[in-house]
Structures are given as structure tokens and as C-alpha cells.
């Protein structure tokens, strides 16, 4: 039967594994959130009515709040990752400190963002709510900045290592192919980071991108994260 073929299709099983993960649901909601952010700006610029724009504004705001709930407690994961990186003496010092900086930045961001959620949801009001939100954005910016520096350094080291490889030797070819894959992963992450950093940088006043540009940037980085999360559940 057609229904049986659909229910037992491997893609359906993959989809169920994907949505069973918090990361999968978060990446899916984030993608829709930023698509809505772009469309909301685009329709406004094209002169569409407020009623036409309202659904996209609602998606943008409600999905953002939903993701904040899903991220509650995730800060501990980044604190642990920072601690593990600090203790890993075998790691390249530059990569190690960039990793620690990135993870501590994300830990601080998620911790403050959780408190901001309590404030915005009316669960507990903080007197310094606006300042806390600003500090959360600054921590997010610094976390991404460390990631960009680390990714750029990783690219440099990979290029230097590839120059020293003997590609005519079998082992050299294998190592070269490994480096190519690592470089592709690093470039992909750098693209996502560069897109993402525009959002806190604009909020902090370091740059001045409009909502349309931020929506597109967020969509690109979200799709990269969505693809990675989908592959992990294959």
C-alpha cells in the first residue's frame, strides 16, 4: 500500500530521529525564524499590508521565544566543553584558547539569555533586564569572534601542512584527502560564523545591516546548521 511505503520509508525514520533531538528542532525553528525575518522586511519594503506581514512577524517572535525555552540548561554543555579544551594539552595552543574563548562566550551568552527569557516571559522581572540582554549579545559576539579566529588559524595550518605533503606517495595522498575534507568543514563553519556575527554586531552598533540582510545571513547559517544536524541523525 502507498501508506505503508510512506510510513516505512527510510526518510521518514530519519526525520523522526531528527525531530527527536533538541538540536534538530532548534535548527529547524531557527531556519523558519530567519526566513520569516527576511520575508517580514521584504513585504514591508514592497508596501504590503500589516495583516500580510503579521504572520511572519509572529513566526519570528514566537519561534525565537520557543528556541529560548529549548536552550534552557544548554549553557552547562558549553562550560564542560571549555573545561575539556583547557585540560587538553595536546591541542594546538592557539586552537585551544580559541576553543575555550568560544565555549565560554557561548556559556555566558546562554546563561544571560536564559535570564532574559525569564524577564521577557514575565516569570521574573530583573531591574537590569536591558543591560543583561546587551551583555548576552556581547558574549555571543565574542564567542563567534573566537570561532572565526580559530577557524582562520585552522585554515592556515591546514594549508601549511598540505604544502609539506608528498602527494605522489600513497600515505601523502590519503593525508591530502583528509586535509581537503577538514578544510571544507572549516570553510563551511567560517561561512556560518561570518553570517551569524552580523546579528550581534548590528545589535551592538558595530555595523549597520538592515533586517533583510540579517534575515538572509541568519537563514544561510541556519541552513548550514540544519544540514549538519540532519547528517548526524542519518
From TrEMBL:
A GO cellular component annotation in the UniProt record: peroxisomal membrane
Gene Ontology terms describing biological process: peroxisome fission
Keywords recorded for this protein, A-Z: Membrane, Peroxisome, Peroxisome biogenesis, Transmembrane, Transmembrane helix
Compartments, as annotated in UniProt: Peroxisome membrane
Membrane in keyword set: yes
Annotated InterPro entries: PEX11
Keyword Membrane: yes
Transmembrane segments: 139-156
PANTHER family the record matches: PEROXIN 11, PEROXISOMAL BIOGENESIS FACTOR 11
Name of the molecule in the record: Peroxisomal biogenesis factor 11
Organism of provenance: Tuber aestivum (summer truffle)
Amino acid at each position: 500500500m502507498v501508506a505503508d511505503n510512506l510510513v516505512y520509508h527510510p526518510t521518514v525514520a530519519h526525520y523522526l530521529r531528527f525531530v527527536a533531538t533538541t538540536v534538530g528542532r532548534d535548527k529547524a525553528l531557527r531556519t523558519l525564524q530567519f526566513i520569516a525575518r527576511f520575508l517580514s522586511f521584504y513585504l514591508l519594503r514592497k508596501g504590503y499590508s500589516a495583516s500580510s506581514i503579521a504572520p511572519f512577524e509572529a513566526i519570528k517572535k514566537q519561534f525565537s521565544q520557543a528556541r529560548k525555552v529549548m536552550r534552557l540548561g544548554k549553557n552547562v554543555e558549553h562550560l564542560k566543553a571549555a573545561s575539556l579544551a583547557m585540560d587538553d594539552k595536546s591541542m594546538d595552543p592557539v586552537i585551544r584558547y580559541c576553543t575555550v574563548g568560544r565555549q565560554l562566550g557561548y556559556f555566558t551568552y546562554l546563561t544571560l539569555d536564559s535570564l532574559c527569557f525569564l524577564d521577557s516571559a514575565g516569570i521574573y522581572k530583573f531591574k537590569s533586564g536591558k543591560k543583561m540582554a546587551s551583555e548576552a549579545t556581547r558574549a555571543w559576539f565574542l564567542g563567534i569572534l573566537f570561532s572565526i579566529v580559530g577557524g582562520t588559524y585552522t585554515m592556515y595550518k591546514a594549508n601549511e601542512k598540505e604544502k609539506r605533503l608528498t602527494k605522489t606517495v600513497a600515505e601523502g595522498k590519503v593525508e591530502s584527502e583528509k586535509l581537503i575534507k577538514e578544510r571544507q568543514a572549516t570553510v563551511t563553519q567560517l561561512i556560518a560564523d561570518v553570517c551569524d556575527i552580523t546579528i550581534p554586531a548590528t545589535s551592538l552598533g558595530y555595523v549597520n545591516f538592515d533586517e533583510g540582510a540579517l534575515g538572509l545571513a541568519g537563514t544561510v547559517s541556519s541552513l548550514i546548521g540544519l544540514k549538519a544536524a540532519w547528517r548526524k541523525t542519518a
